[in-house]
Amino acid sequence: MKLYRFFISIFLLSFVTLFANAYDSVVFHCEQDTTLINSLFNSPELKDMPQENRVAFFAKKLVGSPSALRQQILDADTLVFSIDVHSFTPLSLISTCLALAEAYETSSAPNWRDFAVKYENVMFKRGEATDFVSRFLYPSDWISDNIFRGNVTDVTFNLEGIAARKKEKSIDYISHNKDAFKAFAKQENLDKLKMLEMGFRNHQIPYISNGDLMNPKRFKAQAKEGDIFFLLTPDFNLDSREMGILTFDGDRLLIVQMSPSKDSVTLEELPFENYIKRNVKRIQGARIIRIAK
Q1: H runs (alpha helix) in 159-223
Q2: Which residue, of 89, 113, 137, is where some domain finishes?
């Protein structure tokens, strides 16, 4: 019996140690991060809400948050696994909303620890924050990895009445503009980046044409609350600059995104089809992703 108790004690001690170590490398943006996450989970509206609707719900709760692109990507020279629900990059905004929606499903009383696990799973390659290049830098990489691990599905080719197409691109924008990224002054990081980009040579990107996006009888009729969109850019070696989450306001289809002009999370006033029309010269279609059920 004593030996049995000894092994039980060792098991419990190991479990507690592993649980504690899971958060040793996490840096919080500020003292209010855990409080805000727990407050979001306690929103009474979430209880009977479909999971995909929760993605849009959380996105709208984060409107007004500033951009963290310079601090987290351009000026960062190493990986900092940060829990930050106060400032975002375009991809971290999407990952945060997706992780919040997934974490809400984990228990009857989800909290910031559940979010931290889900966020790492969504925001880093293979779900592990190991080095700077383990953080997703290209949307296509984020999409491929999260589809493979069952977090999201690509519905671009599955929308009724819409004939999606494919565009071929070799994605290597960052290595061609490495001087804008402090982390790639380190040869080790640059070598890993170039290996990553080799996997995206002649990459086939599915997309819905601007014509279908601007026709409310086509795309809007098939869109769902909480859909994630990636707008294709005309840059020859980049997949997407703009991305965000779709939400309905009555009959209007709107977008929540890290606004490229305002440097903050914005609920755009223009309906989605009008937004595409206004910016048609810098948009070459859209890829649509949904949270996996």
Answers
A1: 173-176, 187-198, 210-213, 221-222
A2: 137
Instruction: Going residue by residue through the chain, which has 293 residues, state the pLDDT in tens, using 9 for 90 and above.
Output: 544 454 444 333 333 333 334 445 577 788 899 999 999 999 999 999 999 999 999 999 999 999 999 999 999 998 888 889 999 999 999 999 999 999 999 989 999 999 999 999 999 999 999 999 999 999 999 999 999 999 999 999 999 999 999 999 999 999 999 999 999 999 999 999 999 999 999 999 999 999 999 998 899 999 999 999 999 999 999 999 999 999 999 999 999 999 988 999 999 999 999 999 999 999 999 999 999 98
Domain span including residue 16: 2-137
Q: Please check whether residue 79 is in contact with residue 135, taking contact to mean a CB–CB distance below 8 angstroms.
A: yes
Q: Are residues 102 and 197 in the same domain?
A: no
Task: Compute CA 34 distance to the chain's CA centroid, rounded to the nearest angstrom.
Answer: 19
Total structural domains in the chain? 2
Helix axes 90-104, 32-41, angle to 10 degrees: 50
Amino acid at 194: K
Q: Is residue 97 within 8 Å of residue 246, measured between CB atoms?
A: no
Decide: residue 246, CB within 10 A, 0-12 exposed, 13-18 middle, 19+ buried: buried
Q: Are residues 114 and 218 in the same domain?
A: no
Domain end, chosen from 77, 105, 137, is at 137
Per the CB < 8 A criterion, the answer to whether 286 and 229 are in contact is yes
The DSSP secondary-structure symbol of 240 reads E
pTM: 0.90
Find tokens 């996996």 and name the residue: 292
